[in-house]
Specification:
The chain is α/β, with parallel strands linked by helices and 198 residues long. It contains 7 helices and 8 strands. The chain has a 6-stranded parallel sheet with strand order 2-1-3-4-7-8, sandwiched between helices. A two-stranded antiparallel ribbon has the order 5-6. The longest helix has 23 residues.
C-alpha cells in the first residue's frame, strides 16, 4: 500500500476536512498527516524527520503546507497554491494568539505567533531553493487556482520548476477540486512510479 503524506495549511491541523476526504476517497493508500509546528525553525526539521520515519510515496501540501512540501526534496510532491512568502502575508501571519480551524490531534485549539516566528519565516524563505537538484525538480508539481485571491506565487514557482498546472478554484481546496483535479493526478503519479520501478 502506498503512503501519502498531507501537509496542511496555516491555522489548519491534521484533523482537517481535506484529510478526511482523501482518506475516504483514496482507500488504496495509507493517508497520514502531521500537525505542523507554527514556527518554521521547528517545523522544517520536524517534517524532515516525519517523512524519514514514514517514507511517503508522495507528499501533498496546500498553502503553507505546499511551501513546506516543496522543500522535502527527497520525495515526489504536489504543491497546491503554495504560500511561498508567508512573511509577506501581514493579514495572515501576525503576532497574537489564534484559533485553529480544527483542533490538533492532541486537542490543542489555539496557537501563538510572535515577532520571532515571523522573523524565522523570513530567514527560511531566503533558503527555500537551496540544494534542489534537477532530479528533485522533476518530481515536484505546482497547482495554482485561477481564483486564488489569498496568495499567488505561480510566477516565482515557475522560475524554479517546470511542472506547473492551472485549475479552476480558489485558495482553499474543496471536495470538487480534490475529486476532479488532485486525486486523478495523484493516482497518475503513483501509477507512473509503479511502472518506473518494474
Amino acid at each position: 500500500m502506498k503512503t501519502l503524506v498531507y501537509f496542511h495549511g496555516f491555522a489548519s491541523s491534521s484533523q482537517s476536512n481535506t484529510i478526511a476526504y482523501f482518506t475516504k476517497e483514496m482507500t488504496e493508500c495509507r493517508i497520514i498527516a502531521p500537525d505542523i509546528p507554527v514556527d518554521p525553525e521547528e517545523a522544517l526539521p520536524f517534517l524532515k524527520d516525519f517523512c524519514a520515519a514514514n517514507k511517503p510515496d508522495l507528499i501533498i501540501g496546500t498553502s503553507m503546507g505546499g511551501m513546506y512540501a516543496m522543500q522535502q526534496t527527497d520525495y515526489p510532491r504536489i504543491c497546491v497554491n503554495p504560500a511561498l512568502r508567508m512573511s509577506e502575508q501581514k493579514e495572515i501571519l501576525k503576532p497574537g494568539t489564534f484559533e485553529y480551524f480544527h483542533p490538533t490531534k492532541d486537542g490543542r485549539t489555539h496557537f501563538t505567533v510572535t515577532e520571532e516566528t515571523i522573523q524565522h519565516f523570513k530567514e527560511m524563505e531566503q533558503h527555500m531553493y537551496d540544494g534542489i537538484t534537477d532530479e528533485s525538480k522533476a518530481k515536484c508539481w505546482g497547482f495554482f487556482a485561477g481564483g486564488d485571491t489569498t496568495v499567488n506565487y505561480k510566477g516565482e514557482f515557475s522560475e524554479h520548476f517546470d511542472n506547473v498546472f492551472d485549475f479552476h478554484g480558489e485558495h482553499r481546496m474543496n471536495n470538487k477540486v480534490m475529486h476532479d483535479v488532485i486525486i486523478p493526478f495523484v493516482r497518475k503519479i503513483l501509477s507512473q512510479e509503479n511502472e518506473s520501478r518494474k
